[in-house]
Structure formats: structure tokens, C-alpha cells
Specification:
120 residues, alpha/beta, 3-stranded antiparallel sheet, 3-stranded parallel sheet, 3 helices
Length: 120
């Protein structure tokens, strides 16, 4: 699988970037990240992951705002995924609009609480 290096920004006041428990996001514009406190990491795109599996039993998405960037390829491959557990962020105005749009798509396609479950 192809990998790309990206900056992973830590939350304000989170100086423990050696811990797996540090709060972080790829979204530089997220309200609670410190753009000067980051780590460069290798990433694999969701399309690569989806195309490398015939079926996926559970896809858990907790990627601090980037869920909106990957949801379209996931929805295109919805038949191969049995269950999706997703945390959707909605605290900023930009996220609120995306949140409302996605909830409507989930409802229109009868996916919400049947195949796609929200987790906060």
C-alpha cells in the first residue's frame, strides 16, 4: 500500500507526544490543535485499505475531523462493509454543516443506526 507523510498536530497543552493517548488531528484548522506541535507520520489512504479487502466486518473511524474527507469513498464501498462506527465532529461552523449533510445522507440511504452508528 502506498504511504504518504503528513503532519499530525497535537491538541493545545498536550506535550506528551510520545504517548498513544495524546489528542491529535491531521486537520491544521481544527480549533483545538497547536500548529507548532506536530509529528510527521506515514499514512495510508482509505481507498487503499478498502481495495485491499473483499469484506470488512467493522470499520471504526475516529480521526478528529478528517472523517469528512474519507466518507465518500467509504460510502461508494458500503456493500463490502458490515458495520461502521464513526465519530463525527461538529463543534465548529464548518463541521456543523458537514455533519448535517452527512446525517441526511445516512438517513436518506437508510444507513443510520442500521449499518452506520455514531459514536461521541
Amino acid at each position: 500500500m502506498a504511504q504518504v507523510k503528513k503532519k499530525l498536530y497535537f491538541h493545545h497543552n498536550d506535550k506528551n507526544k510520545d504517548s498513544f493517548f495524546a489528542g491529535c488531528s491531521f486537520d491544521k484548522k481544527k480549533y483545538n490543535v497547536d500548529t507548532k506541535n506536530f509529528l510527521s507520520v506515514k499514512t495510508t489512504g482509505i481507498q487503499n485499505i478498502l481495495s485491499s479487502h473483499k469484506t470488512i466486518d467493522l470499520l471504526k473511524i475516529d480521526i478528529e475531523g478528517w472523517e469528512y474527507k474519507i466518507i465518500k469513498p467509504i460510502l461508494k464501498n458500503i456493500k463490502k462493509i458490515k458495520c461502521i462506527l464513526v465519530e463525527l465532529h461538529f463543534k465548529s461552523d464548518d463541521y456543523q454543516n458537514k455533519y448535517n449533510e452527512l446525517i441526511q445522507i445516512f438517513k436518506n440511504n437508510k444507513l443510520l443506526n442500521k449499518k452506520i452508528f455514531l459514536w461521541h
